[in-house]
Amino acid sequence: MAIDRVPALKRCRALGLEPAVIGRSKESKRQLRRTNRKVSEYGTQLKEKQKAKFIYGVLEKQFRGYYDKAKKMQGVTGENLLGLLERRLDNVVYRLGLANTRRQARQLVRHGHFTVNGKRVDIPSALVNAGDVIAVAEKSQSNAFFKELKESSNALSAPAWLQADQANLTGTVTRFPNRDEIDVPVNEQAIVELYSK
């Protein structure tokens, strides 16, 4: 299995992203580099694709698969692409507030800490559907991380398309996300233009 081992903050600097986008509150010691070099249209499109891949933790082959799937769906291809990425189980766990970062959510899912509709799922790329209930597995509820999360005074915050229940450490997908509810700083149209060349 391919793994991206580039340090997260270094990658944020290269792509011009704030560390908060990937769930990091820690600020980088070095400021983002600003250059006056003119970037070509292709360079801009490539950077947008790299941003999306990095934010969601997806490598090229899988990302291309999402694009191909989004192209076959009804509606705007770029919005469909971001919608598919948002519906990944690791992202939904992060959005529900059951993990601090997408990377942590991915690891928690891989270790089998979550169930979807009562069935244990350990595949981070599994797509959730409207009506699905994501919950911390019964065996994992005694884990120190989840105990602390349950007893925390900070309420779980989830976007409008998700409903979080902190007392039971569960969340429900009420519907698919709209583009305006996806707060990632990515120009999805540039990605579509890149792939359609």
TrEMBL record:
Pfam families given in the database record: Ribosomal_S4 (PF00163), S4 (PF01479)
Keywords from the named record: Ribonucleoprotein, Ribosomal protein, RNA-binding, rRNA-binding
Molecular function in Gene Ontology: rRNA binding; structural constituent of ribosome
Occurrences of domain Small ribosomal subunit protein uS4 N-terminal (ranges): 3-86
Transmembrane spans: none
Residues annotated as domain RNA-binding S4: 87-151
Top-level taxon of the source organism: Bacteria
Keyword Ribosomal protein: yes
BP terms from Gene Ontology: ribosomal small subunit biogenesis; translation
GO cellular component, one term: small ribosomal subunit
Family: Belongs to the universal ribosomal protein uS4 family.
Quaternary organization: Part of the 30S ribosomal subunit. Contacts protein S5. The interaction surface between S4 and S5 is involved in control of translational fidelity.
Task performed by this protein: With S5 and S12 plays an important role in translational accuracy.
PANTHER family assigned to the protein according to its UniProt record, in alphabetical order: 30S 40S RIBOSOMAL PROTEIN, SMALL RIBOSOMAL SUBUNIT PROTEIN US4M
Name of the protein: Small ribosomal subunit protein uS4
Organism taxonomic ancestry: Bacteria, Bacillati, Bacillota, Negativicutes, Selenomonadales
Record gene name: rpsD
